[in-house]
Fold this protein.
Amino acid sequence: MKSLKVGDMIPEFSLPDQNGNIFHIRDVIGKKQLVIFFYPQDGSLYCTREACYFRDISDVFDENDALVIGISGQSVESHKEFAEMNRLNYTLLSDKNDEVRKLFGVPPDMFGLIAGRVTYVADRSGRIVYIFNSQTKVQKHADEALKIILLLRKKGMAATGLPFLSSYNQTLLFFYLEFPFVVSTFTPRNKFLNRNGRRPCEYII
């Protein structure tokens, strides 16, 4: 299974959401920045924490023209119950046969016993600009995605598709990811950005 990497395009796919409506990714590419997070299981402790944290800062994603999408292998009915129980205000897609998970090449964890937990951030053109992979650091999925979304907007790169970065923007992105406290003045939402430690992530640089 070949995994998508930074610079690849989001593949074409369609899946039912928690309300039973078919969601086509082509309908949002070109209109929104995308945050697509794959998670293992509705209702599990870590997945609930991750999903609820995306919910808690969803207004910041909305304000910055980013669409949050969660994907896992449970049924539409399971997703609907999960969304209603936790008041989730974004799209959950049911990937019952793991077809989209395979399209992205999301690697499993624990010797294949647990489905992988991976978040992809894509610009308006559908090009992947950032990948975060961690089974246990669940809140960092939203934190890391938000930093990239804010950076894209602040530097005006979201509309251009981010084909290349200038030397200045490469340096800025590096410091923004590694030392968020240095550049916390970039956004009034810095309370969501200050997390300790190096990020196990991929990004354009």
About this structure: Confidence is low (pLDDT under 50) at residues 157-170, 180-205.
